[in-house]
Amino acid sequence: MFQVVQTGPKRIPSILKKRKKKVGLPPGTPIFIGRIKTEEIKITVLDYDEIKCEEKEVKTVEECLPFKARPTITWINIDGLHDITTLEKFGEHFNLHPLLLEDILNTDQRPKIDDYENHLYVVLKMLNYNEERKSVIIEQVSLILGENYVLSFQERPEDVFDPIRERIKGKKGKIRSYGADHLFYALIDVIVDNYFLILEKLSERIEFLEEEVVKAPGTETLQIIHSLKTNIIFIRKAVWPLRELISRLERGGSVLIQAETSKYIRDVYDHTIQVIDTVETLRDIVSGMLDIYLSSISNKMNEVMKVLTIIATIVIPMTVVSGIYGMNFQLMPELAWPIGYPMALSLMLLVAIIMLSYFWKKGWL
Amino acid sequence: MFQVVQTGPKRIPSILKKRKKKVGLPPGTPIFIGRIKTEEIKITVLDYDEIKCEEKEVKTVEECLPFKARPTITWINIDGLHDITTLEKFGEHFNLHPLLLEDILNTDQRPKIDDYENHLYVVLKMLNYNEERKSVIIEQVSLILGENYVLSFQERPEDVFDPIRERIKGKKGKIRSYGADHLFYALIDVIVDNYFLILEKLSERIEFLEEEVVKAPGTETLQIIHSLKTNIIFIRKAVWPLRELISRLERGGSVLIQAETSKYIRDVYDHTIQVIDTVETLRDIVSGMLDIYLSSISNKMNEVMKVLTIIATIVIPMTVVSGIYGMNFQLMPELAWPIGYPMALSLMLLVAIIMLSYFWKKGWL
Amino acid sequence: MFQVVQTGPKRIPSILKKRKKKVGLPPGTPIFIGRIKTEEIKITVLDYDEIKCEEKEVKTVEECLPFKARPTITWINIDGLHDITTLEKFGEHFNLHPLLLEDILNTDQRPKIDDYENHLYVVLKMLNYNEERKSVIIEQVSLILGENYVLSFQERPEDVFDPIRERIKGKKGKIRSYGADHLFYALIDVIVDNYFLILEKLSERIEFLEEEVVKAPGTETLQIIHSLKTNIIFIRKAVWPLRELISRLERGGSVLIQAETSKYIRDVYDHTIQVIDTVETLRDIVSGMLDIYLSSISNKMNEVMKVLTIIATIVIPMTVVSGIYGMNFQLMPELAWPIGYPMALSLMLLVAIIMLSYFWKKGWL
Amino acid sequence: MFQVVQTGPKRIPSILKKRKKKVGLPPGTPIFIGRIKTEEIKITVLDYDEIKCEEKEVKTVEECLPFKARPTITWINIDGLHDITTLEKFGEHFNLHPLLLEDILNTDQRPKIDDYENHLYVVLKMLNYNEERKSVIIEQVSLILGENYVLSFQERPEDVFDPIRERIKGKKGKIRSYGADHLFYALIDVIVDNYFLILEKLSERIEFLEEEVVKAPGTETLQIIHSLKTNIIFIRKAVWPLRELISRLERGGSVLIQAETSKYIRDVYDHTIQVIDTVETLRDIVSGMLDIYLSSISNKMNEVMKVLTIIATIVIPMTVVSGIYGMNFQLMPELAWPIGYPMALSLMLLVAIIMLSYFWKKGWL
Amino acid sequence: MFQVVQTGPKRIPSILKKRKKKVGLPPGTPIFIGRIKTEEIKITVLDYDEIKCEEKEVKTVEECLPFKARPTITWINIDGLHDITTLEKFGEHFNLHPLLLEDILNTDQRPKIDDYENHLYVVLKMLNYNEERKSVIIEQVSLILGENYVLSFQERPEDVFDPIRERIKGKKGKIRSYGADHLFYALIDVIVDNYFLILEKLSERIEFLEEEVVKAPGTETLQIIHSLKTNIIFIRKAVWPLRELISRLERGGSVLIQAETSKYIRDVYDHTIQVIDTVETLRDIVSGMLDIYLSSISNKMNEVMKVLTIIATIVIPMTVVSGIYGMNFQLMPELAWPIGYPMALSLMLLVAIIMLSYFWKKGWL
């Protein structure tokens, strides 16, 4: 798991850190890169065809096998990746390549698609917004499409797939009448649609900042801009590879994807382009904001300087005049004049006014 | 102030916000993303061939069908997208794919072209300049070209298609003698031509800013630059995809576009390139402006600093001298000198002049 | 000041403004976009073959037709585009497509090449430097190559084609022995060669600025940099499309261009690349200048600040000491000391020297 | 401090310097570009097949030849490149092209792949992090794949290949059952995996900086940012060419790489893309940091200015009032008033409060 | 000739200036663009085969012809381009196209390759570092490869080709046993190798700057950065086109280049990529330096501001207190107190300490 916003200092290493233990190991050694969670792995099987639909939470991989054997469509969702033995069993029973297993566990994978002979493997990034911590959480989802089954691996239980589950159970839409490839598409679609929600959250924050930046720029503003910028850099990293991934999925070639589903994947492709477009737009706006911030601060300083200059201009003649007549020379004729005092006061005022109006004309104030 | 969508803070979310209710729904579920308007949907039919021309405002989709059945060219314009039932009826009678219907309603679509078997679907962005609110409004227009009909869907009634309507009714140009594909072209053409008007408005504002930025940069200048920048980012987003869209339309392949019309579409393509060119030029100029702004402010501050330094330089010797002779030591021989006072005054002047001329030589002032 | 089109504030709109009257008109309606000039259209015919050469200024299009009919090469140059009737007559007699006529008149066209069946149409931008107004003027030139004739349309009389005219009349070079395609090439070549002159003017200004920016940056420097930047943006816009244009001309395919001429067009292509290269180089240098400007100003401010700090450091101990001994307490023993006064003066000096040397060591001054 | 090659000022020349002696020499003259080390060259032979495995440190090239002659897989690792005679002997016995030998010695080579007829030559950069000196060290590794042997040339002994050695000797994984191409792959893989460790080190430093930049930016912060930036520039230079290199290795064509190994190379390719992605991400973050730094400093200065203004505002009325009543005019009626003194004090306070509250309202403070 | 560093103001025009006299001239008119030198043209012939080798300095073109006629390999080097008649004679005797002659003389040519039927023409830029003037000098070299001869044209005598000459005369390497194409390659190779020397000089300067920029940024630093930046812009311009040029040479097609030589040209290609890589790296570093410079200066100013604030904070309470007790009110009870004076002094100190510690806590100092 990876938190973009909340724990600043842990942002970047968390993508990379656990790698250390992997260097030099034989390829295909499944090692889990990520925080080890104490919760148990949760395996949910959803088995359906147009007529019936069965949902079951199982404990072991072996319990899944009868479902796979049936001609119905079987969706097995695995929450939690830390139990390597379970995963290796999946690998064995579903005939998954060791490199594929390694990729599932290596949760800092770049989104990609791999076409193995009898199944299609897709790695995606799931973005979630943690309202409480005001943070974007990036998680890895691995999807495997086999002949009549779909496997989905998540780092931890998330409810993003719930609408699909509901549609299947509630027979909403035609999903029950399509094949496993349509389920595969639907899972990708819901992940991509979720991106829009995250982008909305970000754009809300940006919108909130826009006025602040020009009117009352402060240190926190700077921190939020920096955090937004880093967020968007990470979201870009998660989103850009999707373009090629889904394009390859559409142009397909895989026998597992039917022609009808391709049309829907084309639709996901359009959404992906739109997500990328929006991310780039947000990036441009946030980049611009930093320039605005800098200009705004310079502007404020300029105003403060003007105030200082005005004050100096007013005060200085007064100080000079009062300084002169504060000297203790025995022979200072003005000191004896009856109009000496009011004259000095008037002089102060006069010089201040002359200076102020001169600077005003020059446009310096 | 100058804004893309009327209210600044809502600028960005308004592109994205309503998506929330869509996530997880079956594909092809038509849901209207956009502000729901209270006005009624307005359907206008314009039916013409070289000989006669009939215009009629209808209430229901069924009333359009007789026109479609005739060999004449039928243009059905729909203003307002919030009545989903009406749209679904169109989908039914005109045999539109559910994904297409979804795209019409999803008003934050990226401009694109989809070639369905018996019709061609194009999504475009219409830019309008609201003179009163000084804002650019981005609206989505969907155009569908069928064998002898064109459907156009707009979010709300706009008069941008009026010139076409006039040309058809007034038999101006040869539009009446061409097919539905020419009408399709003409609608795209008028939308693209409209972009030039918006760019003119923007360039007028830019031109107005150019002098201000160098001579009198202030907080509002900053706000206008930021707003212009954001505007151009959004216009780019609307305009760039057009390039590929119209290029694909020209290179065609669609049997619905005749060779003669292709020549005209080539012309629209040239305009599109020119629009993109101009948008990029404006973007470069506005980007440069922010740099100029920052430099200009630094420059102003520099001048203010110089004034402060000049003042300090003049005043300081005076203060020092008057301070010294303001001390109350019993044994200060100068105080008793008759020329003490004028000497002190001369000293003040002298030191100030020496310092000023020294700094002047050094180029610090 | 140095500007693209004579009056700064009108720089950008002038490219776009007159479009307004075009929106919604039937395609191919020739409308002149540009400043309407009061002068008359000037038509010059130059008819030549290897043996003889005839130059004539004519009043009407019809007078040109006999020249066109002859087997000799006929170059018809038209200065001024505001008389639409004359242009329409050309269209008629030379069999020009309405869209082509529209393009000739639409003087904010992007440089492009169009291959009509019996003629080749090229739009170029001519850059001229108005020495008096210190401004670059961008004008559109349309060139049409027919079987044995070349038509050239200019917005207003310019002398850029004069050297060609001289070469033809004076039989310099082999131009008289080549076909119309060579004349066509020669006209393009002279326009591209002219770009070098403009770039020289710009680089002279840049060279002049380079020292100023580092040594004495001021408000005007900023204005000139901004103006140079905008100039280069516009020149880029005029020059970049040339690359593809001339490349297409060279790779040809057009039967109107002979193999021998292709070799020369390759040469123009090399020049175009060089022009683009130089424009990009100038752009990089001018962009860098703004950064230098900003740094330079910050630098100057820093120096001013140091002067202020030095002054403050010297003056402050003096003020404090003189302030203390200026107090009127009855019991201030130092006041009665005979060495009180010199001691106070020495104290002032001492503290100032200590502070100055301390700050010096710290590297603050 | 954190540097690419141990001593900052020598960072860049060290890549280039020794070239001087090469200019104008005949091609294929092997000259060692790099620091000449005093240690001896160390040659290690590891000879294995599925059954047995022999490791031996040899002194001369000739001792290696018997291993090469056997059908087993032979890995010869050479640490140290300064002994040109040894290298030339390798060239002779292993039939290496003079240009290849030159490339091995020229240690500022760009990563590349060369396909000679009977062997494959790959140049890579090895990144090492020197914990003690806090520096990244870039070293060149040359790998040669022959029919049943692999040669690896390193500038100096490093332990990066140790895990591979262990796997072979310990029979971990299936490496012993594969051919020389798999060993070749494994060496490349371990080098690429090592990049992740370096990127982790960098991201740890970046993470550490992120807070510092906003909260307490100082001169060292600037130095570290600059050093990080330069580091990343050099790492990019080492990493980017890998993409094409490994892609070419995968798409192969070389008969020396078996189909099975290609699958694993595909895996290395994915890692390479991920490394590049991460480097770009770090680059974006570090670039952004400098902007944040600048903004942060401007921000701090703004706050300091405000403090100065507040102080000035409070003090100035006091100075003026006390200045006025410090004048020595004989006729200053207030001086004789009993409430003169408290009145003056109150006046001071009052004016200061009025000014402060005025500026506060204006938002200047 | 073109001086990058030394004469700043003449930097840019010198690339372009002399063009003026060319505009409008017939194509293929050889006109020398460059400074006309008074020295004579120097023609050196080096004629060799595997057995013998003859070097001779000749006066006229005709003297070269016997060498060309022999089956041996003839290298004719021409230093100085100002004598157009000589060049035209070369054109005549060696059958060179007029456009080629024009290109040789036009010394601001972009590096390019032209394949004429019986010879290959290459234009390159030679970079030389003038140690005395601390300037990079860009000169144009034209190389022509014919069947058994190579012509090289340089603007002025340089010793860059001397190592080749030595190798031929001294029979070092195998150059004598190869054909004219190998000589052609060797000349290109030595020019490209020379680039590394220039890049070293630049990187030495950069390295020298790196510390200065962070620690003691001044006006000269700025000038050097600007000059380095401009240098690199010009070197890029000279170097980038090489990539395509040499790639085309390698992929060849020309019958004049033998297969064996292609392998060597591949090596030059690798060097070119490396040169480009290094230039880009230097560019990135220099660009980053300007940002560092700006940040560094802001930083310095910040520190100066803090010093000012500290001073102000200490001094101000002293001034205020001494001002108050310097007033001349008749009724100021404190003045009569015996502890008045020490009390006032203590008050001054106390307030200063309180303010300082308060600001310290706030982190303003």
In short:
The structure is a homopentamer of 365-residue chains. With 365 residues, the first copy, chain A, is α+β, with helices and mostly antiparallel strands.
Task: Please give the alpha-carbon distance between the first and last residues of chain A.
Answer: 55 Å
Task: Please report the number of helical segments of chain A.
Answer: 10
Shape summary of chain A: rod-shaped
The CATH topology of the largest domain in chain A corresponds to Beta Polymerase, domain 2
Largest interface (CB within 8 Å) is between: A-B, 69 and 69 residues
What is the CATH class of the largest domain in chain A? Alpha Beta
Radius of gyration of chain A in whole Å, from Cα? 34 Å
Element-by-element helix/strand order of chain A = EHEEHEHHEEEEHHHHHH
Averaged pLDDT of chain A:
82
- How many domains is the backbone of chain A divided into? 2
Largest sheet descriptor of chain A: 8 strands, mixed
> Can you count the beta strands of chain A?
8
Output the structural class of chain A. Answer: alpha+beta
Low-confidence stretches of chain A: 1-18
